[in-house]
Write a structure and sequence with these properties.
- The protein is an alpha/beta fold.
- The chain is built from 13 helices and 8 strands.
- It has an 8-stranded parallel barrel, surrounded by 7 helices.
- Helix 11 links the parallel strand 7 and strand 8.
- The two termini are 25 Å apart.
């Protein structure tokens, strides 16, 4: 399987330098990350929302090593909130954050991440939107869930992400499928050991359906993070069986992948949210997109061959 190899490469400085230096890289990266600054991304926000889509915005960045970098990440999100306020799009555009960007891995990182993310969540609430806490590798999840629970005391719309490939996720889903919760379900895009995660695609797919069924039958708001046509069809059937209306769940897909499907689902009346990332520190995000789906890697390699 190429996925684990690509994920290992995402942590390699040598591979980072090699791929970043490739002439075609920017063209391919632009498919998934359409801008480096908040000013770059404003036209994308306007274009997608005009098409009836909703968005969740991610300021990409990883490997935070100082409190100052964590504070800069906080400030980047606060700047995004200001732009959304000016655009009047608070209700249609939310934000996704990785707590590692807010200092979670530093000394005293749990408290630091909570202190940095809280003003972002507060600012988002003030313009009528919310924040979803992205899931990272399994060692960070207890901290993420604790911060999620703390934030929901004052901002109950704060969402979180769970990953189907982890063994723990079925129990997490049962706990989270409560009234007022917002939970995005994804397959998972980190290299996890066999002791904590399913390794085979068919096992992950079956786990995804089990967890999704729990969310659909619960009292929360499920967010289906998948590009898989079969899983999308299953999600629609599970929603129907659970008696859910179209505004009681949503689909989420990545910018740059299956754009026609985004529009099709929106045209059918579904809430369709596009996960849109921007920023200069794109490497780790980009490599996980390649690892998630063979077609993404094929697209990159084909571009390297034809344009390099």
């Amino acid at each position: 399987m190429l996925g684990p190899v690509i994920l290992a490469a995402s942590r390699s400085d040598r591979m980072r330098r090699l791929i970043s230096a490739a002439p075609v890289t920017k063209q391919v990266v632009d498919r998934f990350i359409p801008g480096e600054t908040v000013d770059d991304i404003v036209p994308i926000i306007a274009e997608l929302t005009a098409k009836g889509l909703q968005l969740t915005m991610d300021v990409v960045g990883e490997d935070i090593t100082t409190p100052e970098q964590a504070a800069a990440a906080r400030d980047a999100y606060l700047a995004l909130v200001d732009h959304l306020k000016d655009l009047g799009l608070g209700e249609r555009v939310e934000m996704s954050v990785k707590l590692s960007m807010f200092g979670q891995a530093l000394e005293g990182g749990h408290e630091l991440a909570l202190a940095n993310v809280r003003p972002v969540v507060e600012a988002a609430a003030a313009i009528g939107t919310t924040v979803t806490l992205d899931a990272e590798d399994h060692t960070t999840l207890d901290s993420m869930f604790a911060i999620h629970e703390e934030l929901r005391k004052d901002f109950p719309g704060t969402g979180c992400v769970i990953q189907a490939y982890l063994f723990r996720t079925e129990a997490d889903a049962r706990r989270l499928a409560a009234a007022g919760s917002r939970v995005r379900l994804v397959k998972g895009a980190y290299k996890e050991p066999a002791e904590v995660a399913y390794q085979q695609k068919h096992e992950i797919d079956k786990a995804y359906v089990r967890v999704l069924k729990t969310l659909m039958e619960g009292d929360g708001y499920p967010m289906i993070g998948s590009h898989d046509p079969r899983l999308i069809s299953i999600a629609q059937e599970l929603a129907h069986r659970a008696g859910r209306k179209l505004d009681e769940y949503e689909f989420q897909m990545l910018y740059g992948i299956r754009g026609d499907e985004h529009l099709r689902l929106a045209a059918e009346g579904h809430r369709m949210r596009v996960y849109t990332a921007y920023g200069t520190d794109w490497y780790g995000y980009f490599m996980r997109r390649l690892a998630e789906k063979p077609a993404n890697l094929q697209f990159f390699v084909r571009s390297m061959i034809t344009k390099g």
